[in-house]
Batch of 3 targets.
Target 1
Amino acid sequence: MLKIMGRDTSSNVQKVLWVCGELGLEYEREDLGGPFGGNDRPEYLAINPNGRVPTIDDDGYILWESNSIVRYLAAKHGGDPLSPSDLQVRGHAERWMDWQIATMSPAMVPVFWGLVRTPPEKRDADAIEAARMKLSGLFAIMDAQLSKTQFLASDDFTIADIPLGIAGYRWFVMDMERENYTNLKRWYDALTERKAFQDAVMNPLA
Amino acid sequence: MKIIGRKSSSNVQKVLWALAEMDVEYDREDAGREFGVVDTDAYAVLNPNRRVPTLVDGDFVLWESNAIVRHLAREHGRGTLHPDDAHALASAERWMDWQLTTLGPGFTNIFHGLVRDAPEKRNWDAIEKSRATTEANLEIVDAQLAKTKFLASDDFTMGDIPAGIYAYRWYAFEGIERKALPNVERWYAALQERPAFREFVMVGLG
């Protein structure tokens, strides 16, 4: 059986849990990382030298990097529309996934740490607001795409919506001011209707 | 098909290297840094991030360099750059993602410090920290290359392209401390035998 290593509060683990939910896959999960530790043990570093989560063990095939895991599982167990076969739709889907790791994630980190992981009395309000403005500019880019298509890569829900859907959840639930991005909100509302999203992502931030 | 972006950009080089490996014809337009263009409204329509490269093929527009490489490999390089085997494919994509999440961010300060900053303005603490981080990341590459000749398998694939560009830059720096990494050195020597690598990547640091 597919084994997933990583705590379920990690946004990167949630990508994998969400895609498993969409695919109806059974799996075992082992808590690892964050408060659970264990990610610096030699036996874990032997399979994931970065010491981060998630890692999967699929009948002996070991894979880390969450977006690559999502694509691997969606290709193995799914197909259109989740894992697009059309070359152009596929290119767009993978582009948004790469953009999440290259651009969205580095911009999300200071806002998330400031508002979720720092006690109120220790927060640097100016730094958080500057980071929030930068983050907002990225959601504006998504909003512009979502004015043209129902989901990020096409009018169907695809693998592209998974990494950025988790970022979207954080954007909409963190205690802060938000610009009114109507297409983004429509897309996010559609995600919240998905059982797999509710189960894997719509949990308290930690 | 047109690629927009200056040849000195590591992200543009990924695409040019991949295209040369697959012997695909294209036009290229300079953009970014000294060439400008990325700050124009017309460019923002194509790429709202205002970065390079961007691929334009008729109505199809794609940005994010690794996603472009995968798209082109899917179209022109099946069984070579784009592995047929599902595990080799996922492993190739994993090393590409890892460049975006880990290798690239860790390398920024040493590259900017040694290549772009004037000698009197260099932040040596940041440069040394980035050097040590990059060395540790290359040890992860070295451990993989102790098991396989190239990153995803015993064959050269798209998984070698992003990390290969960093290898060139790492070994091109003058006067830095570098730990001996025999597997990385063997792999890097094999990359240097590829005409496409020599033409598009081994072009100096700029």
Target 2
Amino acid sequence: MTTLPVFTQDPVNKAKKRFPYWMVIFGLLLVGLLITLGLWLKQSRQTGFEVGAEIPDFSITTFSGEHYQKSRMDGRVILLNFWSSWCASCEEEGAILEEVWREVKDSDDIIFLGVNYVDTENDAKAFLEKYGITFPNGPDMGSRISRLFKVQAVPETYLVDKDGRLAAVQIGPFQSADEIRAMLELAK
Amino acid sequence: MKRVLLVIWLFFLLIVQTPGYAQTEPPVSDDEVNRLASELYCPVCENVPLEVCPTKACAQWRELIREKLALGWNDEEIKAYFATQYGDQVLAVPPRRGFNWLIYLVPPLTLVAGILIAIRVIRKPKTIPAAQEVSNEGPCRMAAEDFISQIENDLEGVE
């Protein structure tokens, strides 16, 4: 008995499919763009500096026109306080910071810098006057410093040691002057 | 007499005050403030237009817009001021510079590329199945010949 042969499609004669070169380039560009976006998103969601990390250079001009640059303050401990006039918990904290500032201001080793976070100049100045704050304070122009430190809310305080490294972080307000004094000890 | 003097005094006050009111700048309305505020975003809360943001900070910024408008600043000057103070992220329409160009270029380029791919796929002639193309030659033809010769052999056997 004859067995019927099986007729199969010959793979040798299949039309060879090739991706057009422009499609490959477009695909690579798309993948590159997605990777870039992913990295950017990852970076934007990362928290700020770890304790011990070297803080990059930044500068601030105070409301009274004095200019402070981190790279010119090496050898000094910098207490960087982010605040706003619309932040209720910044009010009590401002008074506590001022109390400690008056204790240390004659020392050349320590400087307090207030960074006014997304605020209006008139309200910020009124806040400083109302709470009698005398340590240097200035607006964070373009939110550059707060973006550098990835500030999420105010108040936040960062202590930079004499070597320019992050010594301590306080997220939220200080409850007492002793907390600030204890923090300053960490940078000595 | 007192009444006459009082009337004269009130009349005098009216004359003096009237030009004063006429010279006062018309206050900036909430609509004007909100129109510009809708083109700006709250720098603190993400993705909330300044126009509808309920926070104290945003109320302060709306007042700032009102102050600037009252001073005669135009929309572009106020937006530039906000961008300088708080960064470009407060602008509803990002400025065309640096990485922001990606926002303007990538969507239309992707759309054009998609359309080109679709056109190419639609217009591409469909390939004829390889089995039909080679039905008279090659391995299929050979297999058919083998089959025919086998039938012939079988028929010879029957005869």
Target 3
Amino acid sequence: MSQSADYNDRPWLDPDAEPFIKVQSVSKHFGDFTAVDSVDLEIYKGELFCLLGGSGCGKTTLLRMLAGFETPSSGSIVIDGVNMTDVPPYERPVNMMFQSYALFPHMSVESNVGYGLRRDGIAKSEIDQRVEDMLAMVELTQFRKRKPHQLSGGQKQRVALARALIKQPKMLLLDEPLAALDKRLRVQTQYELMNIQEKLGVTFVVVTHDQEEAMTLSTRIAVMDVGRFQQIGTPTEIYEFPSSRLVATFIGNANMFEGRVIENGTDHVIVESKDPACNFYIDHGMSIVEGSKVWVALRPEKIKITKQSETDSNTNSIKGMVSDIGYLGGTSTYRVLIGDGRIVEITSPNLNRPKDGNPPIDWDEEVYLSWEPSSSVVLTK
Amino acid sequence: MNESAESSAQNRLLQRMSHLLQRNWRSLVLFIPFFWLLLFFLAPFFIVLKISLAESIIASPPFTPMIEWVEEGIMHIRVVVDNYAYLWEDDLYAKTYLNSLKISSISTILCLLIGYPMAYAIVRSNHTTKHILLMLVILPFWTSFLLRVYAWMGLLADQGTINNLLIAIGIVDEPIRMLYTPFAVYVGIVYTYVPFMILPLYANMEKLDWTLLEAAADLGAKPMTTFFTVTLPMTLPGIIAGSLLVFIPATGEYVIPDLLGGGNVLMIGRILYNEFNANIDWPVASAVAIALLLLLVLPMMLYQHMQARQVEAE
């Protein structure tokens, strides 16, 4: 009992928890093209799970297989203990919010929202009540009689959400839910979505290509590429401990250095880089053969930029010259030239106001870059 | 001084002219088709209307003039409504009108039943097949309409292809009578007009957002329910356009009932022909034509109304 409470927010860590959705070695082929390539996935009840990837990575195909619009070429999909692999969409306890919203143009807002309930043969008085409650939740009560073409983008999005949630599905699938909204509305809607999800406790599976959206929304993210999962983890895990160069560069920015392992201790690893000539000291051990080729990823905000060198050694430190400064107000992005022509990107918060209008670090200035032993990540692929 | 005043006056004139031209350009563009319709549609209509209000005489032209100058300054206007009364009294006309409406209504429904699934299949097929199928729908128009109706006579006749085939296979012993029956007329009309049903339906379905059907399925609608709650309402404008394009010309159809129905299927087009040519009773024939027009104006107005509503909705 006490143990399950520990895993309350992170059911995927609980060895005893039963996954709510189980995708088992599912593949989908369209002719010669493999959209989804033998993927396994376990999603737990109440999660807000993001499928993240570029266009054509197979995320939408996977979502459509969860909804029932596509049948897997092989593998199985189990939802809440029931095998749903070949069950048609209209018999699945799952609803979807479409990217285009797919509102019925010939029906009013309330008819759209009540459509799913009418299909279940529920008494009219109950339908009316539930439609009213749902419209109140998405704050559309006054627009109930309008047709979809009389609504703004944000209102349409809320109608689509209400229509998909009214049947109290076991899982809500959202295909790029915020893509059609402008930026300001997107941020606001993001939090609304999270609140609604928390309130109703419905499991959300969101498809998105926007990494920022995925980071803020989700409990866990699956990064997809060419039909496979590259990494599945919490936003922090994916950002701080990417498993490959692809994930490291897809989520946020990363400076990537190629090197060779020259020392592999129990509590540290040293990677030697030729270009730029410097050593990376990483303060955790890993199972890797000395001499093997690796990449070191370093996030821009984890690099310290100073005018004076803080150390004599070339471990976790490089000299360079500022070639570009991007002033963003809260932070500045420095592009620093190191070695022969390589650019390293550094993001640094602007803690103090510049004196006399002079920036603390100027163009073409010689600077020293340094970072903590815990800041860099060693990647083998 | 003089010269410059003259040139500025010229400029002003040019400006005014170009301004006038610009302003009236729209009216000019509209005037040409308007004039065309006036000349070739409205004027003949009034001529026919005038004849329908005259009396039949043995003369050339075979009807009484509407306006006669009895003597200097006295005009005699003769308007006879007998022809319309005659249409009303002789139940042959009422029967024929009703029969025409019955045949065109049933044909429209048959065209819809055949055309709707065909249009649906064309829209849902892949790019290459779609174009081939559309081509096949349009292809019959490349052969003369009359020729195609004659071909049907050859197919449906007692000694025709179909009967010969049935007898050869041994399904029947003696030919089934098909030509010169209402059946042949239905076959002819449905065959001829089914493309006019398919094409507007195709144009309508092509614009249909298919994710709406997925959304309906996702919300628990079985395929049949999806069809009746989403597909059918969304394709209603196409159904109406196609139905009117079949119904209106089918009602006034003359060639098909004449060639395939023989004397056994009376349609208003045939009566019209008989009155004009066999009876040489132009006034009655004109009255028949005007009555037919009134009969068809109603569905046309309905069509206009639907179109306007659709435009408004978009």
